[in-house]
Amino acid sequence: MTLTKKDKLWYGFIIVAAILPCIPGVIGGGSFFGHVATMVLLYAAMAQSWNIISGYCGQVSFGHSVFFGIGAYAAGLAVVTFETLPWYGVPLGMLAAALVSILISYPCFRLKGHYFAIATFAIVEIFNRLFMIWDAVGGALGLDYPILPDGWENFSWSDTKTGYYIGALAIFIVVFGVVRWIERHRMGYYLLAVREGQETAESLGVNSTIVKLGAMALSAALAALCGAFFAQYNYRVDPPMVMSLDMSMKFVLITILGGVGTFWGPFLGALVLIPLQEYTRAYLTHFGAGIDLIIFGIIIIVVMIKEPRGIMGLISYLKKDKAEEGAKS
Predict the structure, then answer these.
(1) Rg, Å, the chain Cα set
(2) CA atoms within 13 A on the CB side of 168
(3) Backbone angles phi, psi at 286, to 5 degrees
């Protein structure tokens, strides 16, 4: 196969990202940059999982923190309640998230446009309250991890970020790799057909219900995978942390900032938001809480006014201007 420009960029990024842990002092130890890099990869994967159903399929969901939280609780229950390895909880969490997504999406897909989006808002609140009063999963107090031996078996490290970074990079490659596969195969064309016109797609023989449910299940399973990592990284899980509207909006805003329905959009959005969030928390706390959200809000407003397609739209705009200047010269 002939490598396209996107292929070369993809493989080049993976190589650079894989080399970073080998450079002394960049990722390892208690490096703050290692923490930021890990969070960029994780949030980019989270946003890309949302992009499957909302960007490529056109079904805007504000309820992905539910699936993210299911994955986080599955890993947490495996470690805290059942005193086993988190690895056992990850596939179960992904499966549970996929099943829950189908059960709640099937009736919701009868709604269209903003009605569907409003319904997903309500679902987040329902699951948040359910887990807040559910004693089996720790209720409002959540689950606190015990101190575990460092290593890949427990996926736990106390003095280095390298293992977490490699884990986040692996999740990033899996999620983005799935989207690359979708873009090149029939499923991707089905998703785009449903997004551009459900009635037209159905007239051409596309079963829109199956396509949307399949996309939602895949999106939910990948979001749960990210949630499991989040729980391991933070060493605890509770409803406000993983199953809230605030977390759901992070899925949405990162993708909107980078470019909805594009391959690199979620990564570019995370590349702007996460360093902004982490470094302002570290160095601008004397201005008060929420300064990172104020700055991010200003960035979102400016980008949306200039180019509603996000950062990817700005890049396309600049490329177009450059090409036109080259043609004139």
Answers:
(1) 20
(2) 27
(3) -70, -15
How far, in Å, CA of 210 to CA of 41, rounded? 30
177-203 burial code (b ≥16 CB/10 A, e <16): ebbbebeeeebbebbbbbbeebeebee
pLDDT digits (tens, 9 = 90+) for 55-94: 999 898 898 999 999 999 999 999 999 999 999 999 999 9
Residue 316: both structure tokens together = 């396309």
Among residues 258, 292, 296, the alpha carbon closest in space to that of 54 is found at 258
Is residue 156 situated within a structural domain? yes
Percent of the chain clearing pLDDT 70 (strictly above): 95
Is residue 278 a contact partner of residue 38, using CB atoms and an 8 Å limit?
A: no
Asked whether residue 327 carries a pLDDT value surpassing 70, the answer given is no
Angle among Cα 36, 37, 38 to the nearest 5 degrees reads 90
Owning domain of residue 172: 5-245
- Residue (of 270, 243, 55) closest to 142 by Cα position: 243
pLDDT of residue 23 exceeding 90: no
Residue 171 belongs to some domain of the structure: yes
